Amino acid sequence: MIQKQTQIAFGIIISLLLSTTLSDAAPNRTDQITHGAQKITINYQASLTQNEREITYKWLNKVTSALRTVYGEFPKDYFQLTIQRGTNRSGPVPWGQVERGEPTKVLLVINPEHGYDALISDWTAFHELSHLLIPYRGHGNVWFSEGLATYYQNIIQARSGLLTETEMWGKLAAGFERGEKQHRWGHLKLTDLSDTMRENRQFMRVHWSGVLYWLSADVELRKQNKGTLDSALKQLKACCESSSMSAKAIAQKLDELTQSDLFVPLFETYCDSYQIPDYQPILTELGIEQYQSNRNIVLRNTASQAEFRKQIYRK
Ligand SMILES: [Zn+2]
Questions:
Q1: How far away, in angstroms, is 25 Cα from ligand 1 center?
Q2: Ligand 1 mean position to 149 CA, how many Å?
């Protein structure tokens, strides 16, 4: 713990020296985070003070380390983080988005005056960075991409000690429930609903159907002894990190890489769904019990797939 903090402090000193030299030429300050040969460039909006950049850098170190709990490296060998200051006081990280391209850029709008503890408690950055785990082209069946990012934002927060096992599964169980409650657009298949999500505002059904897809695929891979979703995504990075793929093409590639026949059939089922598929069976086999009265959950270690639940949480 102490050693880690020293490394971060040392990194901040080096990077501030670097950014001061660059500042004469450019109004914005830059910084970087490296892992082996992998590199992330950070561009700070010029209005951030030195103290705010130090807090932001410490936070980004933690968030990007969390991203490495999926398979030990970043999902892209190079990408950029653009840090802008928010114009309102709505929260520590009111907005984030991924701009795919060469290089891929992740924009994070922050209010650093909230401080480090508030920044690290916000899920937005974990969500946006989790989007990088698949080379999604950015349109069509957006449920697939949003589901992956929402699934992993919780996993990587938990694996880096920011959520307990109960908190993590509690968030997933509560999310499925919110997804189930959005059924006003039950005449539209998920694939059509997610194409018009901004207009119909059925964010919960779209996102949480997607999370259930990825959780189901993860558990099924483990049951079939074909690795884990983490290892499948690592293989996907190796082959296709620079590609721009449709959701279906990614599902096909994941089946090919894991020598399975589960990502595509499950994808078709979800595309054609008129409501979030039944999530109770998978929660039961993982040993996640919900109590409707107080929204708390209890984890059962005697459940048939309780080991998978623990593995997903701690890797
Ligand atoms: Zn997203």
A1: 34
A2: 6
Which residue, chain included where needed, has tokens 């309102």? 88
Short-list 139, 151, 245, CA closest to 194: 139
Can the peptide bond before residue 103 be classed as cis, meaning omega within 30 degrees of 0? yes
pTM of the full predicted structure? 0.90
CA of 146 to the centre of ligand 1 (A): 5
Give the Å distance between the CA of 142 and the centre of ligand 1.
Answer: 9
What distance in angstroms lies between residue 315's CA and the mean position of ligand 1's atoms? 23
Q: How far is the CA of 127 from the centre of ligand 1 (A)?
A: 6
Instruction: Please tell me the distance between residue 138's alpha carbon and the centre of ligand 1 in angstroms.
Output: 10
Give 225 Cα–ligand 1 centroid separation in angstroms.
30
CB 80 within 8 A of CB 55: no
- The Cα 264–Cα 51 span in angstroms is 48
CA 60 to ligand 1 centroid distance, Å: 18
Q: How far is the CA of 243 from the centre of ligand 1 (A)?
A: 19
pLDDT mean for each 10 residues of the chain (315 residues): 35 42 60 97 95 96 98 98 88 95 96 95 98 96 97 98 95 94 88 87 93 98 98 98 97 98 98 96 95 77 97 89
Residues 6+ away with beta carbon under 8 Å from 266? 213, 216, 217, 220, 251
Q: How far apart are CA 100 and CA 104, in angstroms?
A: 5
Distance 39 CA to ligand 1 centre (A): 22
